[in-house]
Amino acid sequence: MPVMKGLLAPQNTFLDTIATRFDGTHSNFLLGNAQGHRGYPIVYCSDGFCELTGFARTEVMQKKCSCHFLYGHDTSEHVAQQMEKALEGREEFQTEVHFYKKNGTSFWCLLDVVPIKNEKGEMVLFLFSFKDITDTHGKVHHKKEGCPWTKGKTYSAPHFTHNPIHPLIILPTHLSRSLSPLQNMFEKPSSLPEYKVAAVQKSRFILLHYSVSKALWDWMILLATFYVAVTVPYNVCFTPYDELDTAARATIVSDIAVEMLFILDIILNFRTSFVSTSGQVVYEARSICIHYATTWFFVDLVAALPFDLLYAFNITVTSLVHLLKTVRLLRLLRLLQKLDRYSQYSAMVLTLLMSMFALLAHWMACIWYIIGRKEMENNDPDTWDIGWLHELGKRLETPYANSTLGGPSVRSSYIAALYFTLSSLTSVGFGNVCANTDAEKIFSICTMLIGALMHAVVFGNVTAIIQRMYSRRSLYHTRMKDLKDFIRVHRLPQQLKQRMLEYFQTTWSVNNGIDANELLHDFPDELRADIAMHLNKDILQLPVFEGASRGCLRSLSLHIKTSFCAPGEYLIRQGDALHANYFVCSGSLEVLKDSMVLAILGKGDLIGSDLPGTDHVIKTNADVKALTYCDLQYISVRALREVLEFYPEYASLFTADILHNLTYNLREGSEAEVRHTHLHCNLYQNSKNI
């Protein structure tokens, strides 16, 4: 499978931005529809608001955002009227108000109302922020921190402010006035997010991990890594110590160039995007730095230490410094980490396999030469003149006069050593270069064992290894080729082609091409039900299923399926027959009708319909469109009816509870549909009067 690009489509991250800005202060907020003239129904309710007030999300959705359900005996009518006036005028508003929780407990609340625009500059939503200030209420001239976009204001209890907002300005108009000059110098006011599909915000200094330029750079680093893996062992083993300085100076240009490449690679890795565990592409510089510093930075840093600069500045070095250069071989760990990227094609797999085999033979040739040199330098009168190097010198008529003088050239010695190791790895050798001393025989035995392992594991089963290692990748390429052939044969337009390819690649990255239904098909029903209960535990923990028996839950779990929706894709179209009820596992969606936002759905929301009748076809009353990448679980209406027929004692309970557990009811003629119709009629009548 090619390098995973991550999830790249433009997303409407409004909900994520709101939640992030509230983090650290509180997360008690509502979103109200600002496109109507009256009513302004609530389209989103945060978990923090539910915890603060005691109301469930389903009890709050589609109620008026003026929050009459929080009013009580001590709630100021004057404040309520001012809030209604601010909503009618699409204006900012902040005040202290006495609210009541569901259990009747009263609390003082710092209420902020901020209008939200879309990319066209139209007011589409109201953001309501609720902060419990019961403990601090009554203190004069104290600083209230309510909504993160209106922090820094000073109020005198129990007064309130009512400031109009210019129709073309998003930021609160009073924000800059309330901050002191010193604060304005050191604090940047938070910008209010817009409700729109946001393009990817990426600094031009961030390098995309899937770009062509990054791929070319990775190949250059791969070649430099192989250069290091070849030259460092050769220089350490085949170059005498008294000549190391001269040899190092001969290759100083290429060595320093490689060191600079490695250092530059470290710098680029601090500016290269990556794919997080959730599949999202991370462009933020700080997150990239933390990710790289906690993964491969130390290995890359040690491997990039510029030892060759010592020669450039004519600094005398010891033999230990030359041995320390072997730490550059740590770059091979990076090669293993990126092996999946380099091995996308069979030819590349074979090339890398042969390269690694040749590299292994090269390393063993270096060790073989060192063994021969050490045998001669030991000055043992019984063994110094019978080693393989001494015998090679005799054959080439360049014999050793003693343990240090004479002998074949370094070039001839390396070729002979590489010949021996390759012949020993691929066969049992030919005897013209053989082991004579005990140390040489032990090394030869190890080489033969490694060669046998290479034959048995690699060469003898290379086809089977490739098929096992890349069976999933082969299946991916087969399906991708079929998809591209289908697109070409039917001449699909570019936009539709792009949507199909992105959906296929993203779903494959999520499930790796594994069909769970097919995989579990041959398992016994009891085991399949237990597995399904575990996989679908989130949706089965919804309040609507609390009254179901374990047998009913097991039957339901076998019918729950998973789905995925990309940003901008429609999950449901208005007027279509509703085939399933959906549970949002991650991401956010919006419910639209006549280009008006009726609800915003997030993690944990349930959307669908009640079951009015056995043979009744449920028609949807609105569109459901994905704002971000969404993971969904769903159960079909037909399967739900079948299970309820087997468990009639739960069917009546489900019918009564589903209305209170649906975040939004998509059935035509439902209460939500009636409310929207009245709102639309009022809006039409008002525009007609104007």
Question: How is this structure best described in words?
Answer:
With 690 residues, the chain is α+β, with helices and mostly antiparallel strands. It contains 29 helices and 18 strands. The longest helix has 32 residues, at 346-377. It is elongated and about 110 Å long. The two termini are 60 Å apart. Mean pLDDT is 76; it is low at 151-190 and 683-690. One of its GO terms (biological process) is regulation of membrane potential. Residues 14-90 form the PAS domain. It comes from Oncorhynchus kisutch. The potassium channel is probably composed of a homo- or heterotetrameric complex of pore-forming alpha subunits that can associate with modulating beta subunits.
Q: Please state the structural category.
A: alpha+beta
Mean pLDDT across residues = 76
Poorly predicted spans = 151-190, 683-690
Strand content: 5-15%
* DSSP strand tally: 18
Biggest pleated sheet? 5 strands, antiparallel
Based on CA inertia axes, which overall geometry fits?
A: elongated
GO molecular function: voltage-gated potassium channel activity
Subunit structure: The potassium channel is probably composed of a homo- or heterotetrameric complex of pore-forming alpha subunits that can associate with modulating beta subunits.
Keywords: Glycoprotein, Ion channel, Ion transport, Membrane, Potassium, Potassium channel, Potassium transport, Transmembrane, Transmembrane helix, Transport, Voltage-gated channel
Pfam families: cNMP_binding, Ion_trans, PAS_9
